[in-house]
Amino acid sequence: MKTFDISTPAQGTKTPILKDEKRAVMRLEVKAGEALPSHSSPGPLSLLVFRGELEFSDDETHEKALLKPGQGILLDKKSMHSVRAIQDTTCFVNALFA
C-alpha cells in the first residue's frame, strides 16, 4: 500500500505520485488559460479533475469534453490528446504502459 497527500504543495506542473514499469500516476496542475499541447499517452489513461475546470481534447477523434471536479475521462488505448484549463485546475492522471 502507498499513501499520498494531495494537500502538499505541487512540485511544478506535474508532481509524480508513483512511477514503475507498469504505470505512472501524477498530480497535474494547469493554470487558467494554459494548455498542454497535443501529446500521446503511453497506453490506456484515466484523468480525474479534483478542482477547477479542464477542456480535454481527443486529437484523433476530435471529441472534446469539459470536465469539472469529480468528472474524468478514460482512454482505452494510446491516443494523442491535449488539455486546456478554463480555471486553475488540479487533476490526477493514471497512465498504463502498453
Structural key phrases:
98 residues; mainly beta; 56% strand; four-stranded antiparallel sheet; five-stranded antiparallel sheet; Jelly Rolls
Write the SSE topology:
Layout: E1 14-19, E2 23-30, E3 35-40, E4 45-51, E5 54-58, E6 63-67, E7 72-75, E8 80-85, E9 89-96
Antiparallel strand pairs: 1-2, 2-9, 3-8, 4-7, 4-9, 5-6, 5-8
Can you summarize the main beta sheet?
5 strands, antiparallel
Task: Give the rounded overall mean pLDDT.
Answer: 89
Poorly predicted sequence stretches spanning 5 or more consecutive residues: none
Strand line-up in the sheet with most strands: 1-2-9-4-7
Taking Cα atoms only, what radius of gyration do you get, to the nearest Å?
13 Å
What overall form do the CA principal axes indicate? globular
Distance between the termini: 23 Å
Share in β-strands: over 45%
What is the subunit arrangement here?
A: single chain
CATH architecture: Sandwich
Structural class: mainly beta
Please name the CATH topology.
Jelly Rolls
**Number of domains in the coordinates?**
1
Overall strand count: 9
* Highest CATH level, the class: Mainly Beta
Description:
This protein is mainly β. The protein has one domain (21-91): Jelly Rolls. The chain has strands spanning 14-19, 23-30, 35-40, 45-51, 54-58, 63-67, 72-75, 80-85, 89-96. The strands form 2 sheets. The chain has a 5-stranded antiparallel beta sheet with strand order 1-2-9-4-7, with no helix packed on it. Strands 3-8-5-6 form a 4-stranded antiparallel beta sheet, with no helix packed on it.
